[in-house]
Design a protein that fits this description.
Layout (H helix, E strand, L loop, with lengths): L5 E5 L6 H14 L7 E5 L5 H8 L5 E4 L16 H7 L3 E4 L2 H6 L4 H13 L3 E6 L3 H5 L3 H12 L8 E5 L13 H19 L8 E4 L7 H5 L6 E4 L6 H8 L5
Parallel strand pairs: 1-2, 1-8, 2-3, 3-4, 4-5, 5-6, 6-7, 7-8
Helix pairs in contact: 1-2, 1-10, 5-7, 7-8
Bound molecules: 1,3-dihydroxyacetonephosphate.
């Protein structure tokens, strides 16, 4: 099964509009020759508009980092799915562990957001992953199963990319080994096949957590690792370009 590689930058709360423009000017030129990878940039909300402008006609995909589950109304500070479509977003990240941890998002909230985003045709990067405590207690697979089953409750996997991001590897410099990543990805794929049959083979599963130019090649060499969701190493043009141009094993 050939799954098209998917490499996404999650800038988190970084970059002003002018920093966004500077990055994209250099980046767009540097990846011009890349035709066989889906390249995705998720800047903060405030940079979406300027990024959409810059990315027009490049084939590089624009994503938002979060969305609210209601269509419109009295929800001060929130952004609706249709607003993201309107500004030129193709994808939205939902359920990132930082949203779950700092903003109290639950599997139920994540499920509502996924449904709301799908309704307006937004594609989804759905994040899951266990904490160190859960891993050490041998609960990794239980946590992944719960997050998948509840997050995708009463929905399908059409237009969904799953990102496996073990919390202990995010921003810590402690990457999962290729073996650890493959083990979790294989489990996630099996679960997808149980839920959705053969379609489970088509779903792209990304790894996230301290991905760097140094470790991307060995991660991408794993059978069930179809791409990466990159935080820190996506903030500099050179390092993100090297990740996008990973070497195939
Ligand atoms: P880092 O690459 O900085 O560890 O962040 C990973 C992440 O959370 C991407 O969504």
């Amino acid at each position: 099964m050939m799954r098209r590689p998917f490499i996404a930058a999650n800038w988190k709360m970084n970059k002003t509009t002018s920093e966004t423009q500077d990055f994209l000017s250099g980046f767009i030129t540097a990846v011009k020759d890349v035709t066989d990878v889906d390249i995705v940039i998720a800047p903060p909300f405030t940079s979406l508009s300027i990024a959409a402008e810059k990315l027009k006609g490049t084939g590089i995909i624009l994503a938002a980092q979060d969305v609210f589950c209601e269509e419109k109304g009295a929800y001060t500070g929130e952004v609706s799915p249709v607003m993201l479509v309107d500004i030129g977003c193709n994808y939205v990240i939902i359920g990132h562990s930082e949203r779950r941890q700092y903003f109290h998002e639950t599997d139920e909230t994540v499920n509502k957001k996924i449904k709301a985003a799908k309704k307006v045709g937004l594609k989804i990067i759905f994040c899951i992953g266990e904490s160190l405590e859960e891993r050490e207690a041998g609960k990794t697979f239980d946590v992944l199963q719960r997050q998948i089953d509840k997050g995708l409750y009463e929905t399908d996997t059409e237009d969904i990319v799953i990102a496996y991001e073990p919390i202990w590897a995010i921003g810590t410099g402690k990457t999962a080994t290729p073996e650890q990543a493959q083990e979790a990805h294989a489990y996630i794929r099996e679960r997808q096949k149980i839920l959705y049959g053969n379609k489970g083979n088509e779903i792209r599963i990304l790894y996230g957590g301290s991905v760097t130019p140094e470790n991307i090649d060995s991660l991408m060499a794993c059978k069930d690792v179809d791409g990466a969701l990159v935080g820190g190493a996506s903030l500099k043009v050179d390092s993100f370009v090297r990740i996008v141009k990973f070497k195939k094993g």
